[in-house]
From TrEMBL:
<keyword id="KW-0547">Nucleotide-binding</keyword>
<dbReference type="InterPro" id="IPR003136">
    <property type="entry name" value="Cytidylate_kin"/>
</dbReference>
<feature type="domain" description="Cytidylate kinase">
    <location>
        <begin position="6"/>
        <end position="217"/>
    </location>
</feature>
<dbReference type="GO" id="GO:0005524">
    <property type="term" value="F:ATP binding"/>
</dbReference>
<dbReference type="Pfam" id="PF02224">
    <property type="entry name" value="Cytidylate_kin"/>
</dbReference>
<dbReference type="GO" id="GO:0036430">
    <property type="term" value="F:CMP kinase activity"/>
</dbReference>
<keyword id="KW-0067">ATP-binding</keyword>
<dbReference type="GO" id="GO:0036431">
    <property type="term" value="F:dCMP kinase activity"/>
</dbReference>
<keyword id="KW-0963">Cytoplasm</keyword>
<dbReference type="InterPro" id="IPR027417">
    <property type="entry name" value="P-loop_NTPase"/>
</dbReference>
<keyword id="KW-0808">Transferase</keyword>
<protein>
    <recommendedName>
        <fullName>Cytidylate kinase</fullName>
        <ecNumber>2.7.4.25</ecNumber>
    </recommendedName>
</protein>
<keyword id="KW-0418">Kinase</keyword>
<feature type="binding site">
    <location>
        <begin position="10"/>
        <end position="18"/>
    </location>
    <ligand>
        <name>ATP</name>
    </ligand>
</feature>
<dbReference type="GO" id="GO:0005829">
    <property type="term" value="C:cytosol"/>
</dbReference>
<dbReference type="InterPro" id="IPR011994">
    <property type="entry name" value="Cytidylate_kinase_dom"/>
</dbReference>
<comment type="similarity">
    <text>Belongs to the cytidylate kinase family. Type 1 subfamily.</text>
</comment>
C-alpha cells in the first residue's frame, strides 16, 4: 500500500478534481474530494431549510452527517446518509451557497477531523483549499494548482456547453471570482497557498500535460520517501 500523502489546493476550476482522480489511481492512493464534503453539507442544509447564518445548526449537521465516496468507472459517487447526491451537489444552488457554509468554524472542524482520519489510515491525494495549510501540514507533497481566471472560467463554460447547458461566460467568470474572494478572505482556514507548496500554473496546458507534471512531482517525492 502506498502511504504517500499529497495535498492539492487551488482556486475553482484550476483542474484539481480532473487531475486528482487520475493521479491518485496511478499512484495507488485514495482520492478524497474535500470540496464534495462541503458541498454535501450545503446540500443537506438546503434540504432541511436550515438558515445558512445559523452556525450552531450547521455545526450540528456537520457533526451528524454521514458522507461516503464510492468509486465508479465514470468518477466518484457521493452519498449523504445513504442517499446518492453525486449530481445534486453540483447544482448552481449548492455552488452559490457552499462558500458560506464552509466558512463556519464548527463545520470546518468536523470536516478536517474526518479528512485527517482518512489520511491516518491510507495514502491519499486530497484536493481542496486548506489541505497543505491545515488538514495535512506535514504532507509529503504540496501542490498549488492554478490558472488565470479567464482560463478557469472558459473551462467551466466548455464543460457546461458539452453537457448542453446554455450559459454566459462572463457570468461564470464573475461567479468564480466572487467565490475565490470569499474563500480567500474568510476567517477560518482561508484558501491560501502553503509556503512550501509547488506552484503549477496550468494556463494553456492540456489535462494530460498537467497530469504528467503532477505525477512526476509525486513520483520524485515517493522516491525520496522510500
Ligand atoms: O470544484 P470547485 O472548484 O467548483 O469547488 P469544490 O472544490 O467542489 O469546492 C467547493 C467549495 O467548498 C469551495 O468554493 C470552498 O468554499 C469549499 N471548500 C473549502 O472551504 N475547503 C476545502 N478543503 C474544499 C472546499
Ligand atoms: O476541481 P477544480 O474546480 O479545480 O476543477 P475541475 O472540476 O477539475 O474542472 C476543471 C475543468 O477544466 C474540467 O472540465 C477539465 O476538463 C478542464 N481542464 C483542466 O482541468 N485542466 C486543463 N489543463 C485544461 C482543462
Amino acid at each position: 500500500m502506498n502511504t504517500l500523502r499529497v495535498a492539492l489546493d487551488g482556486p475553482a476550476g484550476a483542474g484539481k478534481s480532473t487531475v486528482a482522480k487520475r493521479v491518485a489511481a496511478a499512484l495507488g492512493v485514495a482520492y478524497v474530494d474535500t470540496g464534495a464534503m462541503y458541498r454535501a453539507i450545503t446540500w443537506k442544509a438546503l434540504q432541511r431549510e436550515i438558515p445558512l447564518h445559523d452556525e450552531a445548526a450547521l455545526t450540528d449537521l456537520a457533526n451528524s452527517i454521514r458522507i461516503d465516496f464510492k468509486p465508479r468507472p465514470e468518477g466518484q459517487a457521493v452519498f449523504v446518509d445513504g442517499v446518492e447526491v453525486t449530481d445534486a451537489i453540483r447544482t448552481l444552488e449548492v455552488t452559490n451557497n457552499v462558500s458560506a457554509v464552509s466558512a463556519v468554524a464548527g463545520v470546518r472542524i468536523a470536516m478536517v477531523n474526518l479528512q485527517r482520519d482518512i489520511a491516518s489510515r491510507t495514502g491519499v491525494l486530497m484536493d481542496g483549499r486548506d489541505i497543505g495549510t491545515v488538514v495535512l501540514p506535514n504532507a509529503d507533497v504540496k501542490i498549488w494548482l492554478t490558472a488565470s481566471v479567464e482560463a478557469r472560467a472558459n473551462r467551466r463554460y466548455q464543460e457546461l456547453l458539452g453537457k448542453g447547458v446554455q450559459c454566459d461566460l462572463q457570468q461564470i467568470q464573475d461567479d468564480i471570482q466572487r467565490r475565490d474572494e470569499y474563500d480567500a478572505s474568510r476567517e477560518h482556514s482561508p484558501m491560501v497557498k502553503a509556503e512550501d507548496a509547488v506552484v503549477v500554473d496550468t494556463t494553456g496546458m492540456s489535462v494530460d500535460e498537467v497530469i504528467a507534471k503532477i505525477q512526476s512531482i509525486c513520483t520524485s517525492a515517493q522516491a525520496q520517501k522510500s
